[in-house]
């Protein structure tokens, strides 16, 4: 019914036409069998076929045409188109795999697909069947499905000759060759009979035995074998998709965890750099404090040294002051003694002057001696003047506190010489009156 509704759209509106309408109908049946019903973006239901099922059908179709299947080229194309509508599926087959193929080959390949997927035929071909009643072998065309093995008189399957029911208890076993009986024989044992068959070659015999065993295994199910395989492939795809999503989620989680670890690592590195920077700042501050402490200690040591030097200098200055005080007192005492001695000399001089005046009046006749005495008196006055000058110089030097001892000795020596001279003069003056008398 669906085909009658849609065939005009699929047959007439085609850009690349190589398949006849009957082949398109068979491919449509295969597509509907293996396709999935989904909703499009507008919310309308549509039948699509995933790329895995398209690969399954297309590879079978290409091998049925006798060509080599190129999986790489197909995967390269389906990487851009993961799902197919029937129009795109039909255009894909016609444009890439039917060019240069004869129509009869296309019909056979399409019929092969239809028999495999829609008719659920596991295997078909010519076999020889032994007639139990006559013991003769007749070649017939056998068609194997999951629940029965039907044989026909010809390949066109117009006249059914018989049927062998297949159940889970059905067995297919090879028959060993004997001296009188040769050929690639095997037997099919059912619940009610045993059928002996013969294949054309050894490989065909093994393929038929394996196919009958497969039908026996699937005979317990009510679904067709191809629907079972399609459901199995879908489950595998869903499982693979689930695993892929799980792996993707795990990968995303791992990436997130990795990002978190990277962020934590960056934070740790940033904290480490910050800690290293703070440590450097603390080390710099510690070094600065140590330098300041060393400077303080050095300043304290310098201050102690300066204080010690100042104490020493103060002590030395104090000692010098005490020494100067002592020297000053000594000089003052010496000056006092010199003053007293001078006063004594002045008194003596005045007394001598009086005596000289008296003597001068009495000795006026002695001019020559008077001249000598006068000359000596003048010399004595000069000496006194020198002594006075030396005394004044000594007083000035005492004020400057320099070379005091030397000046003191010089003045003392001058005064002593002057005193001796005066004593000599006085003695001389005393001796003159005695001589005159």
From TrEMBL:
Domain PH positions = 120-217
Residue spans of biased composition, Basic and acidic residues class:
236-278
Q: Which InterPro entries match?
A: PH-like_dom_sf, PH_domain
Q: Where is this region: Disordered?
A: 223-278
Cellular component (GO) terms are: cytoplasm; nucleus
Gene3D superfamilies associated with the record: Pleckstrin-homology domain (PH domain)/Phosphotyrosine-binding domain (PTB)
Q: What PANTHER family does this protein map onto? A: RUN DOMAIN-CONTAINING PROTEIN, SWAP-70 RECOMBINASE
Instruction: Give the protein's recorded name.
Output: PH domain-containing protein
């Amino acid at each position: 019914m669906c085909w009658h509704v849609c065939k005009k759209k699929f047959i007439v509106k085609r850009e690349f036409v190589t398949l006849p309408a009957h082949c398109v109908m068979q491919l449509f049946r295969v597509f509907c069998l293996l396709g999935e019903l989904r909703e499009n973006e507008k919310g309308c239901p549509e039948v699509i076929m995933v790329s895995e099922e398209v690969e399954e059908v297309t590879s079978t179709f290409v091998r049925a045409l006798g060509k080599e299947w190129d999986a790489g080229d197909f995967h390269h194309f389906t990487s851009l188109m993961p799902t197919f509508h029937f129009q795109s599926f039909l255009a894909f087959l016609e444009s890439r795999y039917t060019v240069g193929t004869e129509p009869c080959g296309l019909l056979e390949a399409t019929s092969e697909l239809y028999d495999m997927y829609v008719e659920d035929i596991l295997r078909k071909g010519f076999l020889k069947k032994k007639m139990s009643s006559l013991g003769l072998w007749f070649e017939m065309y056998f068609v194997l499905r999951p629940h029965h093995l039907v044989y026909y008189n010809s390949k066109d399957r117009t006249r059914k000759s018989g049927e062998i029911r297949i159940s889970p208890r059905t067995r297919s076993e090879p028959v060993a060759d004997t001296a009188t009986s040769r050929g690639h024989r095997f037997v099919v044992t059912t619940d009610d009979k045993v059928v002996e068959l013969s294949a054309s070659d050894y490989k065909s015999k093994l393929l038929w035995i394996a196919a009958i065993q497969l039908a026996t295994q699937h005979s317990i199910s009510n679904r067709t074998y191809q629907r079972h395989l399609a459901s199995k492939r879908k489950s595998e795809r869903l499982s693979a998709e689930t695993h892929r999503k799980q792996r993707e989620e795990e990968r995303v989680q791992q990436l997130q965890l990795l990002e978190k670890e990277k962020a934590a690592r960056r934070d740790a590195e940033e904290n480490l750099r910050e800690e290293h920077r703070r440590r450097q700042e603390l080390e710099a501050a510690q070094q600065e404090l140590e330098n300041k402490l060393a400077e303080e200690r050095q300043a304290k040591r310098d201050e102690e040294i300066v204080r010690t030097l100042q104490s020493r200098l103060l002590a030395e200055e104090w000692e010098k002051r005490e020494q100067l005080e002592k020297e000053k007192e000594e000089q003052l005492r010496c000056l006092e003694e010199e003053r007293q001695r001078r006063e004594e000399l002045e008194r003596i001089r005045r007394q001598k002057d009086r005596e000289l005046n008296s003597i001068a009046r009495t000795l006026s006749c002695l001019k020559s001696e008077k001249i000598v005495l006068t000359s000596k008196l003048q010399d004595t006055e000069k000496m006194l003047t020198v002594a006075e000058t030396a005394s004044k110089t000594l007083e000035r030097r005492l004020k400057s506190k320099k070379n005091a001892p030397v000046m003191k000795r010089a003045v003392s020596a001058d005064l002593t010489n002057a005193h001796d001279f005066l004593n000599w003069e006085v003695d001389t003056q005393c001796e003159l009156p005695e001589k005159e008398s």
